[in-house]
Structures are given as structure tokens and as C-alpha cells.
TrEMBL record:
Keywords: Membrane, Transmembrane, Transmembrane helix. This is Nodulin-like domain-containing protein. It comes from Gossypium armourianum. CDD domains: MFS_Mch1p_like. GO terms for cellular component: membrane. It is found in: Membrane. The chain crosses the membrane at residues 32-52, 96-117, 162-185, 191-209, 229-246, 258-276, 343-367, 387-409, 421-440, 446-469, 532-552. Residues 347-559 form the NFD4 C-terminal domain. Its main location: membrane. It comes from the Eukaryota. The keyword Cytoplasm does not apply. Residues 31-275 form the Nodulin-like domain. Gene3D superfamilies: MFS general substrate transporter like domains.
């Protein structure tokens, strides 16, 4: 029986009364409901994106200067990007513990900030506020690790599309939380901090036993289902984009925000319906009597497994082999690509080194461009409202970059056997166009550059995470993909502080000296302010693309093989 026939039959069958309770229990324990829970966890993990919204409240109520606020922002970035410990914890503890720990860190960090801002505790020292901020921001690593890693292990054959969806929801999470806050509290920044402390914590606790690794299972048409999830996320992103752009000219009432939030929640929970429907498909297929073909296939699988078992070494031989070779002794004895690497084997491999260098140059340049976009608009003479529109464009196109990089690279890899790193090469080359538009601007160039930078910025992380899972296996994926995240702030610091910031200050000093005024505040006006900086960013992105192309050549044969075959063989049959 074909997969299409199975699905056609299964979708026409409902549930008998005596099947409702067993199906409900299986659904709540199944991988489709776990995927829905992961979507909600990721959609609420955007506290780090909201720092600019409530930072002025901290500055005003606690009497901080801008330097102190920047220090808090740096603490946030450190907490959000240092996730190696999170990965190691996820490797050695059950998923529920990782979620519980992340919920505790989120609530502890942001609740202490809320207590300080509302005056319910004595004014903390600056270093204490930095610790609170780092702890709260670090909690998102726990949510990301649980959401991404468990979903990839449960749906390994759709990992590219899935990572794109999950990171897409994470990219929208700041706008989603903001919309909920406007509907519930109005325009009260202190309450936003309280909402950030409570909402992600509550969701993590609700789904604490739901999200877990269950392994792959065969499904009639998994890719079509993920296309439906994609459609829902696009509609959600368009709703937020339209609302954000209209809000630049019209102020929405609290009631209007409540209506918009209701529609938003309906779109989020529409994925629950899809998950329920697919779980029902699987349930009905399992009830079908086996055909002669499936019986014959089962017999052949049993014979094959018995032959494999007879050729495998005994457990005592495997123990002896493990005793003889520790992880330190096997560092340079690497397995084939796609097999499970140890953490040390992966971190010392040439493929990982190339990928990290690509991330430092590619993602570091993108972060620098995004963080400087507001000041770029100011230097080119745009007003504040237009600059805010640029930032909104970046965030929305960032989402589209995330989801489409996952889906498009999956199609190119599965259908045309093109290496996924090739998509990274194309993304980095495309980003150079955006940087050069800022270096050599013309009327309207910044709008185009915002779209290009937003897409290319969003596209990179899903590609990096998917490539790591494919080249180095899933056994230590939680730690390895958190290691890759460290490269981006390193590149951002180099290009943002040492390159872009230094060149901007130099150009501003030249402007001040030219008009003969004292430099009270360094402000540069004109296209020359960022010209050299963005020529450098375009150059380093080209270098990152070259590194990615080297990885393409190294992994070409690997991607021409059926890299998902082992997951199909190990998948639970229906």
C-alpha cells in the first residue's frame, strides 16, 4: 500500500468512543504534540530581543547612565550566547530537568530585575543587575537547546525545514511577547519585565514532561505537513509586519491590541490542529491490518537484523574496546562524516574549524550591520520614524531568511543532492550586496539593504545548526550547536567595536575638526561615515563565502549519498 493511500484511508476514519482516551494519551505523549510545544516554547523565548524596549525604564528608575545601560546590554549578550554549559547539561540530564532549570533561571533573573525596577527591593549594585541580566538571558539557551535538539532527533529527515521553523518562531518571539504585553498591560514597561519573567517560565513548566526525545518514526507525508506549518508561520509574520508598519502612523487602543493578540493566538494554536490531525493519521494507519507486502518486509527486516546481530561484537568485547580507547585517545581517530562524533573529535575536525571561521566572518558581519542600522539611518539623514521602520523590516525579513533557508536548502539537498554549505556560500555572497549598498548609497538604497541584510542574517544560523547535525551526528548535538553560537558574538565584537566603531569615531572627529567645534558628542553625518566599514564587512563576508565553498568541496561526496538512510532504517514502522 502506498503512503498516499495510507493517508487517504486514515484521514477518513474518526475515533470510536472507546478509542478517545487511549488516543488522547498517546497524542499528549507523542512527537507531534511535542513539536507543537516546541513551537510555543520558541515563540516565547525572545526576551533578549526586548532589551531596547524596557532598558529606558531601568535607566530612569535606577538612575543609570548610558554607559551602565550598555554594560547591562553586554551582560545580556554574554548570557544569551554562552551556551556550552547548557549543552553539556542537556547531554547528561533528562529533558524535563533542562526545561526546569531554564524556567528557574528565566524567572529568577527577570523577576529580580522587576523587583528592582518597581522599588520592591533596595537598589541593587550595578554588578548585581548585570548578573540578573546574564542569568535571565542565559535561560533562552535552555529553551533553544530543548526545542531544537529534541525536534531534530524526532524528525531527522526534515531537520533543515524544522530548524528554520523553530528559529523563525524564535525570531518572531520578541514581537509576539510585545503584542501580548500591549493587550494585557497597555504601555507599561515595568509590566513587560514581569511578563518576560512569567510567560516563558509558565510554558516551560506546562510542557515539562511533553518535550522529550522519542526518535524518528515513519510518516506518510511528513514534508507536506511541514509546508503547512510554514504557511501558518508566514501568515503570523505578515500579521505582525502589517501591524508594526501601521502602528508607525496610528496608535492602537488596548482593545484593538487585544483583538490582534487573539488572532495571533489562534494562528499559533492552529499548529495544534495540524499536530492532532497527523497524530490521528498515524493512529489509524497503525490499526490497519498488515498487507502481504508489509509482512514480507517485516520478515526481511527480522532476517537482516539477526544477521547484523550475529556479526556485531559481544557486549563484553564492546566494553573492552571502550576501556582501551578513551575519548582523549580517539580525538584524531575520527569516524566517517554523518556518524556520531565525540565532542572533542568534532571540535578538532577541519570541517568544524572551517564552519566556525565561516560563522565568525559571516554572522559576525551580519550582527554588526544589524546593530548599527539605526545609526546608519541617522548618518544618512533619515528621521527617527523611518529608522524605526528599517529596524522593523530587518526583524520581519530575518524571520523569512530563517524559515526559507531551512526549507530551500532541504529541497536542494534532497532533490538535487547539493551540499547544504553551498546555500551558506550563496547567502554570504548575497549579503555583500547589502553591505555595498550602504557603503555606496543612493536614494532608497537603505530600504533594499535592510531587506537583504535581514534575509541573510536570519538564514545563517539554521544552516549552521543543520550542517553540524549532518556532519557530526546527533549524539552530542546539544553541546556542538551551542559551541557554534559562541563564534557569532566573537565576530560581532571584532567588527562592531574594533572596526566599525573605531572608523566611525575617526570620521566623526574629522567632521568636528573641519567645522572647528569641540567634540561634546561624536556624531558623523554623511555617506562617508560607514563607507570604509562596510567595504570591510563585504570583504570579510566574501572571505566567509570562500571558506564555506571549501567546506562544499570537502563534503560534496557525503551530500551526494543518502544521508537520511540510517534514520529511515531506524524509524519506527507504522
Amino acid at each position: 500500500m502506498t503512503e498516499e493511500a495510507k493517508e487517504s484511508i486514515s484521514t477518513k476514519r474518526g475515533l470510536r468512543r472507546n478509542e478517545i482516551l487511549p488516543f488522547t494519551l498517546e497524542f499528549l505523549r507523542g512527537r507531534w504534540f511535542a513539536l507543537f510545544a516546541s513551537f510555543l516554547i520558541m515563540a516565547s523565548s525572545g526576551s533578549v530581543y526586548l532589551f531596547g524596549t524596557y532598558s529606558n525604564e531601568i535607566k530612569t528608575t535606577l538612575g543609570y547612565d548610558q554607559t551602565t545601560i550598555n554594560l547591562l546590554g553586554f551582560s545580556k549578550d554574554v548570557g544569551a550566547n554562552v551556551g556550552i554549559l547548557t549543552g553539556l547539561i542537556a547531554e547528561t540530564t533528562p529533558t524535563w530537568f533542562v526545561l526546569l532549570l531554564g524556567a528557574a533561571l528565566n524567572f529568577g533573573g527577570y523577576f529580580m530585575i522587576w523587583l528592582a525596577v518597581t522599588g520592591k527591593i533596595a537598589k541593587p549594585m550595578v554588578w548585581q543587575m548585570c548578573v540578573y541580566m546574564a542569568i535571565g538571558a542565559n535561560s533562552q539557551n535552555f529553551a533553544n537547546t530543548v526545542g531544537v535538539v529534541t525536534a531534530v532527533k524526532n524528525f531527522p529527515e526534515s531537520r533543515g525545514s524544522l530548524i528554520g521553523l523553530l528559529k523563525g518562531y524564535a525570531g518572531l518571539s520578541g514581537a509576539i511577547i510585545t503584542q501580548v504585553y500591549l493587550a494585557v498591560y497597555g504601555n507599561d514597561s515595568k509590566s513587560l519585565i514581569f511578563l518576560i519573567a512569567c510567560l516563558p517560565t509558565a510554558l516551560s513548566l506546562i510542557f515539562i514532561y511533553t518535550i522529550r526525545t522519542m526518535g524518528p518514526a515513519k510518516h506518510p507525508n511528513e514534508h507536506r505537513v511541514f509546508n503547512q506549518f510554514l504557511l501558518l508561520s508566514i501568515v503570523l509574520a505578515l500579521l505582525l509586519m502589517v501591524k508594526t508598519l501601521i502602528e508607525r502612523k496610528i496608535t492602537f487602543s488596548k482593545g484593538t491590541n487585544a483583538v490582534i493578540t487573539t488572532v495571533l493566538c489562534l494562528l499559533l494554536f492552529a499548529s495544534l490542529y495540524i499536530s492532532f490531525r497527523e497524530a490521528l493519521v498515524v493512529w489509524n494507519i497503525k490499526k490497519q491490518p498488515p498487507t502481504a507486502i508489509t509482512i514480507e518486509q517485516s520478515k526481511s527486516q527480522v532476517v537482516e537484523s539477526s544477521e547484523e546481530t550475529s556479526t556485531k561484537p559481544t557486549s563484553s568485547e564492546q566494553v573492552d574496546e571502550k576501556i582501551e580507547k578513551s575519548c582523549f585517545l580517539t580525538v584524531f581517530d575520527k569516524p566517517e562524516r554523518g556518524m556520531d562524533y565525540t565532542i572533542l573529535q568534532a571540535l578538532t575536525s577541519i570541517d568544524m574549524l572551517i564552519l566556525l571561521v565561516t560563522t565568525i566572518f559571516g554572522l559576525g558581519a551580519s550582527l554588526t550591520a544589524v546593530d548599527n542600522l539605526g545609526q546608519i539611518g541617522e548618518s544618512l539623514g533619515y528621521d527617527n520614524r523611518t529608522v524605526t521602520t528599517f529596524v522593523s523590516i530587518i526583524s520581519i525579513w530575518n524571520f523569512f531568511g530563517r524559515v526559507f533557508s531551512g526549507f530551500v536548502s532541504e529541497i536542494l539537498m534532497v532533490k538535487y543532492k547539493l551540499p547544504r554549505p553551498l546555500m551558506m556560500t550563496m547567502v554570504l555572497l548575497f549579503s555583500c550586496i547589502g553591505y555595498l549598498l550602504i557603503a555606496f548609497p543612493f536614494p532608497g538604497a537603505l530600504y533594499i539593504a535592510s531587506v537583504i541584510i535581514g534575509i541573510t542574517f536570519g538564514a545563517q544560523l539554521p544552516l549552521i545548526f543543520a550542517i553540524i547535525s549532518e556532519l557530526f551526528g546527533l549524539k552530542y548535538y546539544a553541546t556542538l550547536f551551542n559551541c557554534a553560537q559562541i563564534a557569532s558574538p566573537l565576530g560581532s565584537y571584532i567588527f562592531k567595536v574594533k572596526v566599525t566603531g573605531a572608523i566611525y569615531d575617526t570620521e566623526a572627529l574629522k567632521d568636528v575638526a573641519a567645522i572647528g567645534l569641540a567634540a561634546k558628542q561624536l556624531t558623523c553625518i554623511g555617506s562617508h561615515c560607514y563607507r570604509l566599514s562596510f567595504i570591510i564587512l563585504a570583504s570579510v563576508s566574501c572571505f566567509g563565502a570562500l571558506c564555506s565553498l571549501i567546506l562544499v568541496m570537502r563534503t560534496r561526496k557525503f551530500y551526494q549519498s543518502d544521508i537520511y538512510q540510517k534514520f529511515r532504517e531506524n524509524a519506527d514502522t507504522l
